[in-house]
Specification:
The chain is an all-alpha fold. It is built from 8 helices and no strands.
Amino acid sequence: MTTPVCTSASDAAVAARQTRAHARPYPSFASYVRARQPVLLRTARSLTANPSDAEDLLQTALAKTYVAWERIEDHRALDGYVRRALLNTRTSQWRKRRVDEFVCDEMPEPEPVPGEDDPAERQALHDAMWRAITKLPARQRAMVVLRYYEDLSEVQTAEVLGVSVGTVKSAVSRALGKLREDPELDLAR
């Protein structure tokens, strides 16, 4: 156990710490983060292209600030401290980032996952379906779109178009029959 050499000096140091503690504009780390997070997040977003990466960057910088919270003497300069932590963290991330590139004769194709559609085939089917739907008469086209693309019930479709439910049922039935006969959609079957 050590004893202070000069009690008046140690008393003065304690008094100075207490004065600083009462003069702080942000008495706790949590209140500082609540008050300044939107501004600091904008700064982080200016350093990264991805908003999620900006949130991660800010979280890392705030964690570093939290660790040093008691050592920061001038709490009026906290924004500068956090901004510097943001910049240093981003620079460290940039330096650590490593991209492995390999020279190859052909581009490697990913192995097909069983049960998963080919996106190109899905898009081709989608395009063929829209072309077939545009061939339908306007009234049938409207009913098919409301019924199957907008996912409205027969009653809701009838209300939107101002017709009876029976009209919707018969018109949709005829439209689906025309779509089944469309030669362009034979490829999807």
